[in-house]
Write a structure and sequence with these properties.
Layout lengths: L1 H18 L1 H19 L5 H28 L7 H29 L4 H18 L4 H26 L2 H55 L11 H18 L3 E8 L2 H8 L1 H18 L6 E6 L2 E7 L3 H17 L2 H4 L11 E8 L7 H17 L5 E5 L5 E4 L16
Parallel strand pairs: 4-5
Antiparallel strand pairs: 1-3, 1-4, 2-3, 5-6
């Protein structure tokens, strides 16, 4: 667990390091241009060309590695720690080249020592802030850039007795120490923050896994407090076995909230959830007989298992449910239906009869087929699957429901 957190922290931190690597290149380019401007009239053209070529080549190599990192960073076996070392080595190389350029200007005494010190200090500070995500990179950009120039200032003082060189050496030493100290403190703060983020993400993932496991093992829908699909699958299998053994029938009703998607898009999840909860409560209160269950079949569907109930009685029961939902004025209470009409709801019914050899999947398919017919039919929101008509569903106006079986036509 600890190793995983450390690995994730390293990954995020090093990704951030390379994320701002092009800012590093921009700072180097600006510093190189400033050095060129400062030394244009005081340094030979050959020296300028050589220094420019070295800086350009090192920056091109840096861009190559950074581009390669960004292309491969999402690979499964990608070694982020290795790339941190590559970044640091590259930073050391570029800093050493710039350090040589600064040292040349210091020892040639062609430019004011204080001017060189100021530019060097700003250059170092910018690189340090960009590289603060890694201790290695921070040391890799600061020490190779400042230590050679501290030595150059001291050498100039010892050989020529220049007081400005000594004061610049002392100031640059203290400046480097303060810069590294601040950088380390910022690094510790960043790493602690990243570690909290990683631990929080892991806890969220763990919570999501446990929640999914609970959903898979529980039999109650957490949103509506009615039984869930898992309970439906258990009871329907038991009911099929019982009906085959006892030679009895049972019916299934699948109810679909046809307004679900539109309501979600227009009114949001919170208002939709309260509406669904209200409907679920109405449906649960309607199942009074023992063995009758209402379940959350899908997000926008409920299912009823009705033992010893024919499709005719299931049709009458569906009509009653529709009346109860309509009488509860759910659409008005929650303000989810602009035209103030009843909420669009469809019912699909199928009956398992004695002697049937169909399995559970076929029963559900029959009810779903009837549900589709009910949704497409403008006259009635309720349809009964009719096996004698090769998969057609019998429908009738809800206002005057006619009870039908799978073997009779609509009156």
């Amino acid at each position: 667990m600890i190793n995983d957190v450390k690995r994730q922290c390293d990954k995020l931190i090093i990704n951030s390091l390379f994320k701002y690597s092009f800012a590093n290149i921009a700072v180097q380019l600006f510093s190189g241009a400033l050095l060129l401007f400062m030394s244009w009239q005081n340094v030979s053209s050959d020296a300028l060309i050589n220094a420019g070529l070295l800086i350009t080549c090192s920056l091109l190599v840096s861009m190559l590695y950074q581009t390669k990192f960004l292309r491969k960073q999402n690979e499964a076996k990608f070694d982020h720690v290795k790339w941190e070392s590559i970044y640091t080595l590259n930073a050391i190389l570029i800093s050493a080249i710039f350090a040589g350029s600064y040292a040349y200007l210091i020892l040639s005494s062609s430019i004011s020592i204080y001017a060189v010190s100021f530019v060097l200090g700003m250059h170092c500070a910018c690189l340090a802030m960009i590289s603060v995500c890694s201790k290695k990179a921070l040391l890799g950009v600061t020490l190779p850039l400042t230590v050679p120039n501290i030595a150059a200032f001291l050498y100039l003082y010892l050989t020529q007795g220049t007081a400005a060189a000594l004061s610049s050496a002392i100031a640059l030493t203290l400046y480097t120490a303060v810069l590294i100290t601040i950088g380390f403190k910022l690094y510790a703060s960043i790493r602690a923050h990243v570690q909290l983020i990683v631990q929080h993400n892991e806890q969220e993932e763990l919570s999501a896994k446990y929640l999914e496991k609970i959903k898979q093992t529980t039999i109650e829908d957490h949103e509506t407090d009615v039984f869930n699909r898992r309970f439906f699958d258990l009871t329907i299998n038991q009911e099929v076995r019982r009906a085959k053994r006892a030679g009895t029938s049972f019916s299934i009703i699948i109810l679909k909230l046809d307004f679900y998607e539109e309501c979600l898009a227009e009114h949001g999840a919170e208002k939709l959830s309260r509406c669904v909860q209200s409907i679920a409560k109405t449906l649960a209160n309607a199942t009074l007989r023992g063995g009758e269950y209402v379940t959350r079949f899908e997000d926008n569907k409920f299912a009823f298992t009705l033992p010893n109930v024919t499709s005719e009685h299931a049709y009458a029961f569906s009509s009653k449910l529709l009346d109860l939902i309509s009488a509860s004025n759910i659409e008005h209470i929650f303000g989810i239906n602009k035209d103030k009409s009843d909420l669009p709801i469809s019912f699909g019914i199928t009956e398992f009869k004695p002697g049937n050899i169909i399995d559970v999947d076929e029963i559900i398919e029959q009810a779903s087929s009837a549900l589709l017919q009910a949704k497409e039919n403008k006259a009635s929101p309720i349809a009964v699957f009719d096996a004698s008509k090769a998969g057609t569903a019998i429908t009738n106006s809800h206002s005057k429901p006619v009870l039908v079986s799978s073997k009779t036509d609509v009156a």
